[in-house]
Amino acid sequence: MKKTLLLVTALLLAASMAFAQYGPTGQTVLSVVIGNEASIQVDTPTTNLTNVTGNAFGNFTGTTTFDYKIRTASGDTTAAITLQLNQLLTSGTNTIAMANLGYTCTDVAPASGTGCASSVTPSTTSGTAVASFPGDAHSVNTGTTGNTLSWTLANLPTYETGTYTATVTLTISAA
Amino acid sequence: MKKLLKNLSLLALILLFAASVAHAQGSATGPTTISVTVGPEASLTVTSPTTLTTAGTVFNNYTGTTTASYLVRTTQAGGSGSITLKVTTDFSPGNGPSVNNPPTAGDKLAYTCGGAAPATPCTGSQTASTSASTPVVTFGADAHATTASGSTATTSWTLTNDPVYKTGTYTATVTFTISAS
């Protein structure tokens, strides 16, 4: 009888403890880690390079615009934007040497375009500089707009006629 | 022998007397009425912590889910109940997300609700607040948790991923409240 009473008491206690956390209110702690992030949007799907009508053999020029969002940690200075071409400017079997193509950049803060303030020759094998970022860099929530790449292609008479194309990929990294 | 018979008779008399006293009412059984009033009740428990995460590093919003386990009983006729939530402690430290004072207008901590009967989840996206309770689920009349261990309701969170936030870990406290009538 005594053992039975003891068992019943123990079971009742266990049951009460199993529901001890239920109550009229309950709390959760929301936790979020905010880290480095970066994204880019190219606003010019096709950048047409043209020369001024009537200016025979004047350079071909064109502009690519892009926007970016960035968040970097304090002291982290490795975030950057680079670009790379997938091929030489190509028209059928004809190509234009990369040395004839160059670009400069105008970047809106917090991006810095010092790496392409003077003409840069792009590459098909590695990324070339478009922008760099300081530590603790932040764009506005809607993105930083007004960034441009200004292209110049030498207009050489040795080119075969045709429409030449290449794809330029801009890559942003927040490291 | 006479003495034995006398003793036996005395014993029988004593036993009959004892039995008659034990059943003073004069019957073999005696009823009593047990009465209990079962009223509306409600209680809940909530998973914690709730970690909000983002996919990739391209400013996708942060998301996460909180599950509330609840027990509920509402009045048969005319009863009702609800679970609501409120951000009782805003995100800290500063320079990150904030429910009450976000760095960019439009930044918010929003959520949608889920849950099966007897709960009716809130509809559409809700914006969490530090100043007012906002809905999670409601209960109608004669609502009962489906099992003794409780039914569940879910809150699926979305937090704006604003580039303006400084990097770091931020926490806020959300309090869920259940009621039944």
What can you see in these coordinates?
- The complex is a heterodimer of chains A (175) and B (181).
- Chain A has 175 residues and is mostly beta strands.
- Chain A has one domain (37-173): Immunoglobulin-like.
- Chain A is 10% helix and 38% strand.
- In chain A, the strands form three sheets. Chain A has a four-stranded antiparallel sheet with strand order 2-3-9-7, with no helix packed on it. In chain A, strands 8-4-10 form a three-stranded antiparallel sheet, with no helix packed on it.
- In chain A, strand 5 and strand 6 form a beta hairpin.
- Chain A is elongated and about 110 Å long.
- With 181 residues, chain B is mainly β.
- Chain B is built from one helix and ten strands; from the N terminus they run H-E-E-E-E-E-E-E-E-E-E.
- Chain B has one helix spanning 2-22; strands at residues 41-46, 50-52, 62-73, 81-92, 109-115, 119-121, 126-127, 134-139, 151-159, 168-180.
- Chain B is elongated, with a radius of gyration of 32 Å.
- The N and C termini of chain B lie far apart (77 Å).
- Mean pLDDT of chain B is 89; it is low at 17-25.
- Strand 1 of chain A pairs parallel with strand 2 of chain B.
